[in-house]
Specification:
Length: 545
């Protein structure tokens, strides 16, 4: 008789099916007030318990029941929608910290280069900066354990350096100017995570604010940036939400309220239960209710970003410039589970002020995760004419502008994706970490060159030299990135700008990076030229009524 071996997928399948059936019914019973027969619910739950009991008792090998259950939960949620998700207890704390705006740690931005942890920069006000840890320092030992040359990953670094507020971690650092390792005993502290990454004046009247996500502190950061820019003379605002994946809906509503007046509708949401049916209005006096507004979006702008863009567009408050946004119109509620895990369950759909849902299609026949690739293939990133909207999803703003639902926010002014300067060679160069390694080494060797140099002087006069590019090419070749002369010549200007932007970030901070890189940001450059049109909306007759 031949031996029969069950694969892991064969072992898991009955559990997954049972979990999907019973847990799906349970979620319906708990959150959706269904008419499901309670006896059916009990039978389904009993079936799962029965299967797990048999596996624990009779299965030939020992199994991790909790692991199987979590696998089943994940598969079950995939049947609901693309955005309902389960976060295991081991990952929940890190996931929450991304949205809460702070975490406990030593306060460094790091990179892993040559299998070694490099300090890119100590975070302002953090414990590492206070102790004198510097950009370019290499972390060799943590709590007596060598971490260099061990195949360390980003997650390993988080586990080593993050920890409870007030706890101590001993770090041995290698610094180029020192022969021996330097010991630092660092007391972990609350480290703020900023979501407004840049705010500066473009000229005497135009202010620029870059928001990278919507976290617990985003609104206060945004309001502070607006006030500071107004003090510098801002009368027009560029709000950059390109690549912003969203986050807290409340932060988006508060941000929109800063720019909208007269009890304007910001967003509404509708769910199966009445308690999830809500409308949010502009109810407070905002700091920028007057003055032209232009919002920048692209295919990476999602969820809360789309709430802000939709509110500005549908209320004729400003212009939207860029490319069609992601198309996420589903609202998730975080539900804390008893073991510390978190369920993020879709409980409603949200609608822009004109009543449109911008959720893109999903379901059995939709390859949701392939949406970006499909957009690229169909030419949408390069031509607005390739984007087809259903006339049944047509809506009209108070000023008579036509907008569409059914798949993201379509900008008022489309800007195609610029591929004229990028190349596969440059992409490989940066993916190899050669760019970051070159910048760290260069700044460590040439610190005196930038002593006393203001950012304005750096921005206007400093140039990345041909000699620097040749050094970068050689470093890339040492990492097996073959030099491609044609690609290099095509991307040389782009390469110089990126290096200058990243060096500026290391020396002067985030504002420097965005001010330099925006010189080649086509969406940004187009927006700056559209303020005459944006001002017509800001002071249109509809606003006076």
């Amino acid at each position: 008789m031949s031996e029969i071996k069950n694969t892991k997928s064969q072992i898991r399948l009955p559990i997954i099916l049972a979990l999907a059936i019973s847990a799906g019914i349970w979620i319906g019973a708990t959150f959706a007030e269904p008419k499901t027969d309670r006896n059916d619910l009990k039978a389904a739950i009993y079936k799962v318990q029965e299967i797990i009991t048999y596996i624990n008792r009779d299965y030939v090998d020992s199994v991790n029941t909790n692991e199987l259950v979590e696998f089943g939960i994940g598969k079950m949620l995939e049947k609901l929608d693309p955005h309902s998700s389960y976060i295991p207890a081991r990952d929940a704390v890190a996931a929450r910290s991304e949205l809460e705006g702070a975490f406990d740690g030593i306060g460094v931005e790091f990179g892993i280069i040559r299998d070694t942890i490099y300090v890119v920069s100590p975070l302002t006000g953090g414990p590492s900066e206070k102790l004198g840890i510097q950009s370019g320092d290499q972390i060799i030992v943590v709590d007596g354990k060598t971490v260099a040359g061990t195949g360390i990953t980003n997650n390993d670094v988080f586990k080593l350096l993050r920890g409870p507020n007030g706890s101590k971690v001993a770090v041995d650092i290698k610094r180029k100017s020192q022969k021996d390792l330097i010991r630092f005993d660092i007391i972990r502290d609350k480290i703020p995570q900023y979501s407004v990454n840049a705010s500066y004046m473009v000229n005497d009247e135009i202010g620029y604010i870059k928001v990278t996500r919507f976290a617990a502190t985003t609104y206060e950061e945004f309001k502070k940036a607006v006030v500071e820019l107004k003090e510098q003379g801002m009368k027009k605002l560029v709000l950059d939400l390109q690549g912003n994946p969203g986050g807290y809906m409340g932060a988006a509503i508060s941000m929109a309220d800063e720019m909208l007046s007269n009890n304007a509708l910001i967003v509404s949401q509708q769910g199966k239960l009445n308690r999830y049916n809500q409308k949010a209005y502009a109810v407070k006096k905002g700091n920028f209710e007057d003055g032209a507004v232009i919002v920048l979006i692209n295919e990476g702008s999602a969820s809360a970003s789309e709430i802000v863009a939709g509110a500005i567009q549908d209320n004729d408050r400003g212009l939207i410039v860029g490319r069609r946004s992601f198309g996420k119109g589903l609202v998730q509620s975080p539900i804390d589970l008893s073991d510390g895990a978190e369920l993020r369950l879709t409980i409603a759909r949200y609608y822009t002020p004109t009543g449109r849902s911008i959720q893109k299609p999903y379901g059995k026949d939709q390859k949701y995760e392939m949406d970006f690739a499909n957009r690229y293939e169909h030419g949408e990133f390069f031509s607005a004419d390739s984007i087809k909207f259903n006339d049944s999803l047509k809506y009209e703003t108070p000023a008579g502008r036509i907008v569409y639902g059914g798949g993201g926010i379509m900008p008022d002014y489309f800007v195609p994706l610029d591929t004229t300067m990028s190349s596969s060679y440059v992409n490989r160069l940066f993916n190899s970490n050669a760019g970051r390694e070159f910048i760290l080494d260069y700044l460590d060797t040439n610190k005196k060159k930038f002593d006393g140099m203001s950012f304005e002087e750096y921005y206007k006069k400093y140039q990345v030299s041909e000699e620097m590019l040749q050094s970068l090419i050689k470093l890339g070749e040492s990492k097996k990135v073959k030099f491609e002369e044609k690609d290099f010549n095509k991307s040389k200007a782009y390469l110089k700008t990126v290096i200058k932007a990243q060096m500026g970030q290391s020396i002067y901070g985030e504002n420097a990076f965005y001010k330099v890189i925006n010189d080649i940001n086509e969406v940004y450059l187009r927006a700056i030229l559209l303020f005459d049109e944006a001002e017509k909306l800001a002071f249109s007759p509809e606003k006076a009524n």
